[in-house]
Structure formats: C-alpha cells, structure tokens
Amino acid sequence: MRFARALRHLITPPWLARRRFPERALDAIEAAIRACEAEHAGEVCFAVEAALGPGELWRGVTARERAVEAFSELRVWDTAANNGVLIFVLLADHDVEIVADRGAAAAVAPEAWEAACHAMEEHFRAGRFEEGSVAGVRAVGALLAQHFPAEAGDRNELRDRPRVS
Questions:
Q1: What's the rounded Cα separation, in Å, for the pair 22 and 105?
Q2: Can you tell me the mean pLDDT for 47-54?
Q3: Could you read off the pLDDT of 8-17 as tens digits, one per residue?
Q4: Interior CA angle at 96 toward 91 and 102, to 5°?
Q5: Cα–Cα separations (whole angstroms), residue 56 to 4, 49, 149
Q6: CA distance 26 to 19
Q7: Inter-residue contact 87 to 98 (CB < 8 Å)
Q8: Is 131 exposed, middle or buried (0-12, 13-18, 19+ CB in 10 A)?
Q9: Which domain range does residue 61 map to?
Q10: Per the confidence metrics, is the pTM higher than 0.90?
C-alpha cells in the first residue's frame, strides 16, 4: 500500500463528493444521460465515490477494480443487449474509469473509452466537475450511438440519476 495514496483516501471526507457534485450538477448529468440515451439503445450509469475504505486500501484495490465492483453492485451488466456503460469517478485518486458491458466493450475500442476518461479528468483538474461530467456522458453517448442506434420502443433499463457516495 502506497502511503501517499492511503493518506489521500483517509483524509478525503465523504461530503467532498456532494460538494463537487451538488444537486444542480446531478440534475445536469441526469439530463445529459436522458438526452444521450434518446440517441442510442445503450444504457449509461454514472457513479461518484469520494474515497475507498480502509479495508479496500489495505487490500490494494485500484480505482479500476472498484469501478468493476460498482458496475456489478449497480447492475449495469443487467441490460438486454449487454450494452450498459458505467462512468465511475473516484475523487481521492483523481481518476475516472469507464466499465462497459461485453456488448459495448466488443463494439468500442478501449482507446475510445480512455479518451473520454482523460477529457473528463482534464475538466476535473480545472475544478469543472459538472462540465466535465456532462462532456463525458456526451462522449460515451456518441460512442454508443455509433454502434447501438436508437430503436423504436427502447426502454430505459437503468436509473439515470447519478449515484454519489
């Protein structure tokens, strides 16, 4: 366990996620998810966590591993076409991870997901959390629209409201 990382997680308070993502930001992200899902048949989920717990730090859980756990916990994998995508933000690590279900992962190159993550991280470094999140949702939506065009009768399978913890 790296000391600097552990310290960063231990001193990052849970309320920091709510400060970086207040209700107006959550409303904007939710609206962006709804708008982009009207353009494709995929499902987008957005989750923010302030920091890892002591047990996760002790086990050396990475931001990517935690994102995969959240993907499962939030049941993003449970879509009919296996095209759910989780955008996961771990504030203490200054990291954004995108986890795509097998249908979406097979259709979109990993470099495209990484580009969306890096663009969001640049906004976040400048303190533009709402703007960066909306831009990330739009980028993911554009990737999904290329491979999963909107279909008549497509239903919303995942909650659009971002999860913050």
A1: 31
A2: 97
A3: 999 999 999 9
A4: 140
A5: 15, 13, 38
A6: 11
A7: yes
A8: middle
A9: 3-150+158-164
A10: yes
